[in-house]
Fold this protein.
Amino acid sequence: VAALRDVYSRLLPGGRAAFWVPAFPVLWTGLDERVGHVRRYTRASLHRAFELAGFVVERVQHQDSLGFFATLGVKWLRRDVTLSASSVRLYDRALFPVSRLIDRWAWPLVGKNLLIVARRP
């Protein structure tokens, strides 16, 4: 909330901020630690943090529905995943576009990440 208050203070009235953050604490794996994540959010916890910082939240939606299931599968299999640049490119080119199509219907329920758009009143 303190970091969001800092962002808020730098915006002009009516200014917007958009963030893409990791979702679903249940998806936490060692990969989160390796990429520098501190936490995973729920829609409610993210919405609340922005409100506490003074923002008016315009939307909060899940994204990357396929990534949710892929991460959950890795966690259930208890695999330690190391991502190479080529595997990330493959996912981004082949699977993420499909995930974006599915996200049009799945966003209220599931996604590996959350997109939030909020504004300073």
Q: What stands out?
A: The first strand starts at residue 16 and ends at 22. The chain is about 50% helix and 20% strand.
